[in-house]
Specification:
Elements lengths: L1 H35 L5 H25 L14 H76 L7 H13 L3 H14 L3 H16 L3 H14 L6 H15 L2 H14 L5 H14 L3
Helix pairs in contact: 1-2, 1-3, 2-3, 4-5, 4-6, 5-6, 6-7, 7-8, 8-9, 8-10, 9-10
């Protein structure tokens, strides 16, 4: 029994000696975990989580070493000296295993801490480089790029039409593209300063753009205004056709037939295109 007591004291001493480096490892982990909290990169967060996991493992090992998980020598019956030797060997093997686990975890913590410090330094360098580029080269590059972009935009965008003929040309192009709103705007702008034939053409374009927007009542009035401005011009028959078409679209067949009658009486020999359109509208309106 005396030999067993001495062995127990020795084992307890080794266990106490084992707890000291465990506490030191725990104290080593804490400042590195605090340092890892300042890292915002994905790699840094992963390393931080691994260090926290190792700290928990160390705490579990420490708890296992001091919580009485190992059977106390005083509670083991020792019928013979051979049994005492076996118990001592078991205790020594357990302590050696725990010490080996401590050394392995300490090495892993050191490696992870070094990796974390490298990641933090790399991230800080990237941020510093980006700030330096913005303060020195980025602003000048953006300032130089602005005039170039402005020039490219000006080259890509045609000059805005201002004269009546330019406005009419732009409006007719928009009409062909079925951009009736733009055609209307150009025709209205051209009417403000247009004179003579330009004014008649602008009025006719205005009527066409209204018809394209299915504003048939306004288009009928606009077509008739184009006719009134030059009742003997080459544009007059087309204007009367536009009046008839707009009235038919509104469902006013009687008024449409009156417009067609005016066309036939004033232009008995119209162009073939106008004659064909008049015959078609006459059939749709049921004109006699």
């Amino acid at each position: 029994m005396k030999r067993l007591s001495i062995t127990s004291v020795t084992a307890k001493g080794r266990m106490a000696a084992f707890c000291v480096p465990l506490l030191a490892a725990t104290a080593f982990v804490a400042p590195n975990v605090a340092h890892a909290q300042d890292v915002s990169s994905r790699e840094g967060l992963a390393l931080q989580n691994q260090i926290l996991a190792l700290k928990q493992q160390l705490d579990q090992v420490q708890s296992a070493g001091g919580s009485g998980a190992l059977a106390a020598p005083s509670t083991v019956s020792a019928p013979s000296g051979g049994s005492n030797g076996d118990l001592t060997a078991q205790l020594l093997e357990r302590v050696n295993t725990l010490e080996q686990q401590q050394r392995e975890m300490r090495g892993e913590i050191d490696q992870l801490t070094n990796d974390l410090q490298k990641q933090t330094a790399a991230l800080s360098k990237q941020v510093s480089d980006a700030q330096f580029a913005m303060q020195n080269g980025g602003g000048a590059g953006a300032a130089a790029a602005a005039p170039a972009a402005t020039a490219e935009t000006a080259a890509a965008s045609p000059a805005k039409a201002t004269t009546p003929d330019a406005l009419l040309a732009a409006g007719k192009t928009a009409l062909k593209q079925r951009d009736y709103t733009t055609a209307y705007d150009n025709a209205e702008a051209a009417l403000k300063n247009a004179k003579g034939n330009f004014k008649v053409d602008a009025q006719f374009l205005l009527a066409q753009s209204l018809a394209g927007q299915k504003q048939y009542r306004q288009s009928a009035v606009a077509y008739y205004d184009a006719y009134r401005q030059a009742p003997k011009s080459a544009r007059a028959p087309d204007a009367l056709l536009g009046v008839s078409a707009s009235l038919l679209a509104m469902g006013d067949k009687k008024a449409a037939c009156q417009a067609l009658g005016k066309l036939k009486s004033e232009f008995p020999t119209p162009a073939p295109r106008v004659a064909r359109a008049a015959e078609s509208y006459t059939a749709k309106g049921g004109c006699s």
